[in-house]
Write a structure and sequence with these properties.
alpha+beta, 6-stranded mixed beta sheet, disordered N terminus, 10 helices, 20% strand, 4-stranded mixed beta sheet, single chain
Length: 294
């Protein structure tokens, strides 16, 4: 099921970056990471990186053992893009929680069709799995979907069991909201942050299928945001989705995430996703997202 409300990007209520810089916050990994995320969301990237570096000084990540690498690789998701997806997946990373049986898998698509102006050279998405104590099976699957966390439940687990314990993730065309197997019937509540707001049923839950039908209507008629933005125009971004509803949900292009893990080896053991990505993985900016689903 979907969480009752959209999850916050980070726990911003802990310690503000201003308080930490004035010495009012505790010198803990948690307080520095919270300050780092707040700076990051404000696009104060030098300040964010300083806070992230201090976070990892206080609570360093570790290189995964061979056994941990095998766990991360075993449960790497099967990612399916829409058949005509314009943006490729440019990077993929995994962070294994040191104390809980959780793995965060981070997807970095080349961009987001609706945001040519956001100064982010990627579209950062994430999904998580919880694995069993014997490390052989999955117990839960979650995906990040436009500020919300979708809980896959039994349909997602059933699909994973039929596919070597690798959960399926479907990525929306152009926007890359991540959806688990069985996504069609998941409940979702529209909010004013949804670009499709005017196309959506409001004030009561709808299914994710209905939400995506509204997304298709918006993208296939009105088109993407900022149709005449010069960056999107120069890079040849599609102005609209040119296809039917059936085309829009044709998630048939497999993106093999294990190949990314084997090639780039962006895998660490850490509590701190954003700090680890910033300090260990990517030479470019990304937007921080929810750290863990629970």
């Amino acid at each position: 099921m979907l969480t009752a409300a959209a999850m916050c990007v980070a726990a911003a209520s802990l310690v503000s970056p201003e308080a930490v810089s004035r010495g009012q916050g505790a010198d803990t990994a948690e307080s520095h990471h919270t300050a780092g995320v707040e700076h990051h969301l404000q696009r104060s990237l030098d300040a964010a990186s300083r806070e992230y570096a201090r976070t990892l000084e206080l609570d360093p990540p570790s290189t995964p053992t061979p056994a941990q690498l095998e766990i991360v690789r075993r449960f790497a998701p099967r990612v399916y893009a829409q058949r005509d997806e314009f943006f490729p997946l440019k990077d993929f990373a995994a962070i294994l929680h040191p104390d809980k049986r959780l793995i965060a898998y981070h997807l970095f698509w080349e961009d987001d069709i609706d945001f040519p102006e956001d100064n982010d050279p990627c579209d950062h998405e994430v999904m998580w799995v919880r694995y069993s104590a014997d490390t052989r099976s999955l117990e839960q699957v979650w995906t990040y979907f436009h500020g919300r966390i979708l809980e896959g439940g039994e349909p997602a687990l059933r699909d994973a069991r039929a596919n070597g314990m690798r959960a399926r993730v479907n990525a929306q065309w152009g926007k890359h909201g991540s959806m688990p197997a069985g996504w069609e019937s998941l409940p979702i509540l529209a909010n004013t942050g949804d670009i499709e707001w005017q196309y959506l049923t409001r004030d009561k839950p709808i299914t994710l299928k209905q939400y995506n039908e509204a997304t298709h209507r918006k993208l296939s008629t009105e088109g993407r945001r900022l149709l005449d933005h010069p960056i999107a125009r120069r890079l040849g971004w599609p102005r609209r989705f040119n296809g039917t509803w059936e085309d829009f949900v044709d998630f048939s292009r497999l993106v093999e995430t294990r190949a990314f893990l084997d090639r780039a080896k962006m895998i660490q053991v850490s509590r701190w996703n954003s700090a680890t990505i910033n300090q260990h993985f990517l030479p470019y900016n990304f937007r921080p997202k929810t750290e863990w689903p629970e």
